[in-house]
Amino acid sequence: MGQKLKIAGWVSLGVLAGALTTVSLQTVARNAAAPLPLEELQQLAAVFSLIKTDYVEPVDEKKLITDAISGMVSSLDPHSQYFDKKSYKEFREGTSGRFVGVGIEISQEDGLVKVVSPIEGSPADRAGLKTNDLITRIDDTAVKGLTLNEAVKRMRGEPNTKVILTIFRKDENRSFPVTIVREEIKTQSVKGKVVEPGYAWVRLSQFQERSVEDFVKKIGDIYKQEPNLKGLVLDLRNDPGGLLDAAVAISAAFLPENVTVVSTDGQLAESKYTFKASPEHYLRRSGADPLKRLPEALKKVPLVVLVNEGSASASEIVAGALQDHKRATLMGSQTFGKGSVQTVRPLGPDTGLKITTARYYTPSGRSIQAKGILPDVLVDETPEGDLFAALRTREADLDKHLSNGDGKEEKRQQDERAKARDAALKRLEEEAKKPPAERKLPEYGSAEDFQLMQALNQLKGRPVMVSKTLAERKEEPKEN
Question: Where does 75-147 have alpha helices with state H?
Answer without folding.
Answer: 85-96, 123-126
